Amino acid sequence: MEKRESGKTESFYPKIIAFCCYYCAYSAADLAGSLRLQYPPAVRMIEQPCSGKVDIRLLLQAFEDGADGVYVAGCMEGDCHFLKGNIRAKKRVNAAKKILDKVGVGGERLEMFNLSGSMGPRFAEIANEMTERILRLGPNPLNTARAERATKGEEGDPK
Amino acid sequence: MAEEKSKLQSLFEQGEFAVTCEIGPPKNAQGDGIRKHTEHLKPFVDAVNLTDNQTAIVRLSSIGAGVHVLAAGGEPIIQMTTRDRNRIALQSDLLGAYSLGVRNVLCLSGDHQTFGNHQEAKNVYDLDSIQLIKTVKDMREAKVFQSGEVIKQGEPRFFIGAVANPFADPFEFRVLRLEKKIRAGAQFIQTQCIFDMERFEAFMDLARKRGLHQQAYIMAGVMPIKSAKAAKYMQKNVSGMLVPDGIVEKMSKAEDQPAEGVKLCIEQIKHLRTIPGVRGVHIMAVAWEEIVPEIVKGAGLLPRP
Amino acid sequence: MIVAEAKTLEEILESLQGMSKVLVVGCGGCVSVCLAGGEKETGILASTLRMKRELMGDPLETVEETLTRQCDPEYVQQLAKKLEGIDCILSLACGVGVQFLAEQFPQTWVVPALNTLFAGATMEHGLWEERCGLCGECVLARTGGVCPVIRCAKSLLNGPCGGSQNGKCEVKPNECAWQLIYNRMSELGRVELLLEVAGAKDWSKSRDGGPRKMVREDVKIDG
User: Fold this and answer.
1) Residue B218 in contact with residue B191, Cβ under 8 Å?
2) Roughly what angle, to the nearest 10 degrees, separates helices B245-253 and B257-273?
3) A51 neighbors A144 (Cβ within 8 angstroms)
4) What domain range includes position A44?
5) Are B266 and B273 spatial neighbours (Cβ–Cβ below 8 Å)?
6) Residue A75 maps to which CATH number?
7) One domain for residues C182 and C104
8) Can you tell me whether residue B81 is helix, strand or coil?
9) Is B166:B198 a contact under the CB 8 Å cutoff?
10) What does the domain layout of chain B look like in residue ranges?
11) 3-state SS class at B189
């Protein structure tokens, strides 16, 4: 919340990466589109064959590469096309949250959601929910730190 | 120089029903408490166990405590665990203890250090209790150190004790383990506190079938319980101890719980005396040493020889 | 396999104080199998460290490399060409690998990222248990294939102590190794083997004799 004080937040519009399972969230996004449901353009989707394809490295990399928020959207528990992919994804998301808390990026910037292919409105709702959350949290502190370093005129070559 | 033969051993050989008790050395460098207890207990018991850092809590050493017992005119049984010393230190301490007049040693593995006040300690267990028994016996009979090197003169001639726990598992193996200890050289046995009489009788039955009662002096362990709370604690939290519900119930119902504990203990001793093969009782009144005379008297074990 | 687990982030950060470019080296051997120091864990640790140091205002540059094994010179030498400009190597191998890197690169500071735990087996995904104490003189033939040296908290060789109850060791929540031994011996009808008094163990064959070495002239290539 304090991050809002930086003043830059006025112009802050988040980048959010959504790792979406092909069998549910991705179809739900399609459906949301056909239903002409609005959801924020902050969310960029990456299709996955299963939410279980997502690993911790990928989640951390998204933040290192500048994402302000990340979420993984998989099938309803018990409905995974590959049986337990979504359960594993949940565990990995939880492990990555702990790492993000430890490093200071903040675990609440990362979330796991479950929905089915027919839940177009829920897809839009999740996108809104996550965007609001990240707006409230402000920019990824890594971005802020790198920007500050760059303006200070140091080596300033953010990865 | 002290007498060569243990007084306890002589009593057993004369066919006496022996009575021993236990003194827990203090967590300081003062021996006067041990001497005082010894003087108080001396007319009521034949020998006194000195625990070796029991429950892995640092205390005055069992050998040091044993020397205080000797000084007060008592007969010490020093407990020796293999937890804290390797074979070099164990044998060295055996030589030292014998030179100071100690004649009885009780060999055991000792409580694991995670129970004590130095949980980060490294345990030793170079030898186990049975290997220690064998070592003490070999020093006496074969006059050799554990390595095989000859003890040219002045070998320690200890009366060797071991413990048995009829209440630990696997039950069927407990008698075999007792047999192993006797084979290794144990001459007297002190058991874990007995509360479950039925199980102890089953144990003795098996021991008699294997003739073990004729190969070692088996002393039944008893413990006066001070309160229902203590009984419940032991029932739940002490590994290798079986406290039947009946005892907890009797303690809970009693108006005067310590008196009930003493009464139960006396009843147990009277019953234990009737079991063939039981050659003595070992009274473990931890931190309640002053009650021992009352129990010995109540059980009809006075006067002591 | 050798089972290891990650050190805390705090401890690793402390050992990397003052270093600005670190070679983070994973190992494809045992620690990959126990998910502590393989390629994936190396990537996660490097990323974690970069983010943390960025937010500490002291950015860290990392180079990641996972070797087939860190306990063989031919694999370790592959790192030689990556050392330029490196302040320090952070190894995700067991203690053997860490030392081997230090030996192979005498001019380079090497620190461990893992705590090496034990020689064990995978019981299920995510659960590993110790099975061998590396004592140098195997007693399993006498104990029905269950090792009392490492699985008994007191390494007793002649049967269970008085703390064994309901199959559990007095040191909770472990199983009593001697209960396991007894069960197996009973099932196989060989309880009488346990009546034999096992003599004092020769610990000089274990670590107590000093660091051990094994020489096999028949397989040496040179000399």
Assistant:
1) yes
2) 140
3) no
4) 12-151
5) no
6) 3.40.50
7) no
8) strand
9) no
10) 7-225+276-298
11) strand
Q: What is the ipTM of this complex?
A: 0.93
Tell me the two tokens of residue A31.
């459906």
Is C149 found in the same domain as C106? no
Tokens of A147: 């920007």
- Check if the beta carbon of residue C207 is closer than 8 Å to that of residue C213: no
Tens of pLDDT, residue by residue, chain C (223 residues): 999 999 999 999 999 999 999 999 999 999 999 999 999 999 999 999 999 999 999 999 999 999 999 999 999 999 999 999 999 999 999 999 999 999 999 999 999 999 999 999 999 999 999 999 999 999 999 999 999 999 999 999 999 999 999 999 999 889 999 999 999 999 999 999 999 999 999 999 999 999 999 999 999 988 6
**Domain-located, residue A116:** yes
State the nearest Cα–Cα gap between B44 and chain C, in angstroms. Answer: 28
Q: What is the pTM of this model?
A: 0.91
Q: Which chains have at least 3 CB atom pairs separated by less than 8 Å from chain C?
A: A, B
Chosen from C165, C179, C193, C202 to mutate, greatest number of chain B CBs within 10 A: C165
The alpha-carbon gap from C120 to the nearest alpha carbon of chain A, in Å, equals 24
Q: What is d(CA B219, CA B16) in angstroms, rounded to the nearest whole number? A: 12
Burial of C52 (0-12, 13-18, 19+ CB in 10 A): buried
Residue span of the structural domain in which C110 resides:
2-118
How many Å separate Cα B258 from the centre of its chain? 23
Q: Which CATH class is domain B7-225+276-298?
A: alpha beta
Report the number of distinct structural domains present in chain A.
Answer: 1
Single residue among C94, C118, C142 that ends a domain in this structure: C118
C-contacting residues in A 52-91 (Cβ below 8 Å): 55-57, 60-61, 63-64
Q: Across the interface, which of A61, A104, A149 has its CB nearest the CB of C52?
A: A104
| Residue A4 resides in a domain | no
